[in-house]
Design a protein that fits this description.
This protein is mainly alpha-helical. It has one domain.
Length: 115
Amino acid sequence: MNQEENYFQDTRSKLKQYVYKRILLLRLQAIEKASKLASAIITITVVVIVALFVLIFLSITAAYWLASLTGSIILGFGIVALFYLIAFVFVALFLRKMLQDFFINKFIHLLTKKD
């Protein structure tokens, strides 16, 4: 009888250790995935901000160049603004769904990727 009690106590103890270690492993895996996601979001944000600054300065340069060609600052900036309006409409009408699917797939891949 004493031998059976020791067996069940040992089994119970090992089961508790297993459950504790399994929960710890799941928590660590969740923390790893969350930190990778946060790292990717921060990196993408920094790259997008730098790209926006480059785009802004290139746009101003193009607007002044077009102004020198047309002889009117308003017309130069208007042409650049019209270009951005056309690009926005094109993205909104034709590429929105494709961009959404692309980013959704990237996040899913990032979260489910095995190292």
